[in-house]
């Protein structure tokens, strides 16, 4: 919590060697900085801090290097360490300069073309489907919207509609419309275009941090921790080597082009439970992500569409069934700050499938059991029409 510090003349406001707990801004009074007693510092003169001078967070050390003593009645405003990010310039992450960073930062990187217009690409090293991956559109559009919003406001909800299947081989233009900028909230509408055609729209709402009523009725299911579970790559490896699978199947699986996803997933149930209209898995971004909450929200938005609507097909899976499925719409509510490079549990249920549409709901919990996000999606789910090669995107 933000706070104030009141001190009387002679009181120590900070002591050398003690941990820095925040940034102190003097609102009233004077304080003296007394240099350390060690040899090198001994010659440094003491100096006086006045109104609006500050000390604490932001120095290179996590401990105070000096004593600060009140010279008069002193009032300081304290910005605790956890809010220090407010003082940092917003990163607006830059994929080119962070080669050691997660592939996701590269995927979500956008080129600014004009005010409120950005260009995104489908990278060959990312997951590729027959049309532009829905999560990529959501993540990139949210990144475009976030770049036009005051950095103190974070996305708290978004609603997306997929209009036309996107073409992986051409760039996507994101045009942001600034629908509203209020004092607490801001709203953005984003249109994604290819060949001048709107293929996707997103409406996102952003809010300044606010203190208010709190409760959490949702309880995280009791599942094994991620360390005890296999990830997608390990499951694949097992399938390739498990002698219980026919050799022909293993040879075929080995020939399939396999690109590891930039999201690591660990499934809480084995394939025997695949007929249930539900799925629980842990996931996290591979690699290191920049410390930018806006980026972390774009990354989970991207990941949220990878294994999601397919759950509505689970009760209908049978040998030889070929399906055609496409996300139609997607909504996310961000309840709390998220760390996308730490494990999140994705709890997915499909309450209904009807009329060629499957409906799924999702909840994401962090390891502490906090409900971080709620999600919904409807997807087109059909039996694949038998015909020749894959249909081309309708652009
Ligand atoms: C426990 C361990 C478990 C481990 C499991 C691990 C497994 C890993 C699996 C990985 C899976 C990863 C999945 C990731 C999926 C992500 C979802 C997306 O990105 S989705 C991307 C984001 N979403 C989007 O891009 C959606 C964008 N929106 C749209 O494309 C359109 O709005 C529309 C298609 C939805 C409706 O348009 P409208 O014109 O009213 O619709 P029409 O009805 O007229 O059909 C139009 C055309 O669609 C075609 N087609 C249709 N049905 C079939 C079929 N049954 N058959 C074949 N084709 C079919 C056909 O070309 C047809 O034309 P035509 O042949 O008839 O001439």
UniProtKB/TrEMBL annotation:
GO terms for biological process: acyl-CoA metabolic process; fatty acid catabolic process. Pfam families: 4HBT_3, 4HBT_3C, cNMP_binding. One of its GO terms (molecular function) is fatty acyl-CoA hydrolase activity. InterPro entries: ACOT8-like_C (IPR049450), Acyl-CoA_hotdog (IPR042171), Acyl_CoA_thio (IPR003703), cNMP-bd_dom (IPR000595), cNMP-bd_dom_sf (IPR018490), HotDog_dom_sf (IPR029069), RmlC-like_jellyroll (IPR014710), TesB_ACOT8-like_N (IPR049449). GO terms for cellular component: peroxisomal matrix. Residues 1-56 form the Cyclic nucleotide-binding domain. Signal peptide: none annotated. Keywords: Hydrolase. Belongs to the C/M/P thioester hydrolase family. PANTHER family: ACYL-COA THIOESTERASE (PTHR11066), ACYL-COENZYME A THIOESTERASE 8 (PTHR11066:SF34). This is Cyclic nucleotide-binding domain-containing protein. The lineage of its organism: Eukaryota, Viridiplantae, Streptophyta, Embryophyta, Tracheophyta.
